[in-house]
Amino acid sequence: MWTPRPSRRIVSPAPATLLLRLLLLAGAANAAPPLVGVSPQDEAYFATQVIACRDGSGSFPRSRLNDGYCDCADGTDEPGTSACPEGKFYCRNIGDTPRLLFSSFVNDKICDCCDGSDEYESGIHCQNTCRNIKYIAEAADGGSDLSVTHLDANTNEFMGKHAIAMEDHIQNNNSKDLVQKIRGLRMALVFELGLLVCIFAFCIARRRTRTRRRQHILKRK
C-alpha cells in the first residue's frame, strides 16, 4: 500500500530574530571605528575594546578612537585627527614610501600624504601622486625600525613644505594688504586734493569780496 511522504516545511526565522540579527550586525559595524592614521603594524594594538595609552597615563574605550577629543597626553587615541598636539598621523602611501606626520598637519587643507589620506575631512581633493616603487623589499630587510627611521628623517621635509606654504599665504595676504593700502592712499590723496581746491576757491572768493567792498567804500567817499 502506497503512503504519501510527509511534505517538507521550510521554517523561516521569526521576525523578532531577524530584527535582533540586524541590530547586532549594525552594532558591530558601528563599534569598530576606522583606523585612520594607524600603521599596519599597530592595527593589533587598537583591536581591543579597551586601549591603553602608550605613555601609561590611562586607557580609553575603542569607541573614543579618533573621536576628536584627546584622552591620552601622547595622542594614542587620536592618530587620525589633530586633537592631540603630540599625536602622529601615519600615511600609508601604498606603492610609495610611508610617512609620519604631526597631528597639526591633518585636515589643514595642505596635501602632505601622496595618497591624500591626511585631508579626508578638510573639504579639498588631493590627487594620488604616489609613485609605484618597490619599497616592500626595503621594509622587509630593515623591518618596522627602518620604516620609522625613514619616516623621522622626512620631518624636516614636511616642516619646510609647510613653511613654504605659510610664506606663500603670508605673501598673498601682504600683497592684498598692500593693494588695499595703495587704494586707501589714492582715496586720501583725492580727498586732500579736493579739500585744497575748495580752500583755494574759498580764499579767492573771499579776496574778491573784500576787494569789491573796498572799491565800493572808496566810491562812496
From TrEMBL:
The keyword NADP does not apply. Residues 28-147 form the Glucosidase II beta subunit N-terminal domain. GO terms for biological process: N-glycan processing. This is Glucosidase II beta subunit N-terminal domain-containing protein. InterPro entries: Gtb1-like, PRKCSH_N. The lineage of its organism: Eukaryota, Viridiplantae, Streptophyta, Embryophyta, Tracheophyta. Keywords: Membrane, Signal, Transmembrane, Transmembrane helix. One of its GO terms (cellular component) is glucosidase II complex. Residues 1-31 form the signal peptide. The chain crosses the membrane at residues 184-205. It holds the Pfam family PRKCSH-like.
